[in-house]
Amino acid sequence: MAHRLVIATHNKGKAKEIESLLGNMSWTIVSLDQFGNVGEATEDANTYQGNAKAKATYYSKATGEWVLADDSGLEVAALGGAPGVFSARYAGPNASDAQRRSKLLSELTGVKGADRAARFVCSAALADPRGKIVKITEGICEGVICESARGDSGFGYDPVFVPTGYDLSFGELSAEIKNRISHRAKAILAMRSFLQQEKDLLDRFNLEP
Question: Which of 7, 15, 35, 53 has the most Cβ atoms closer than 10 angstroms to its Cβ?
Answer without folding.
Answer: 7
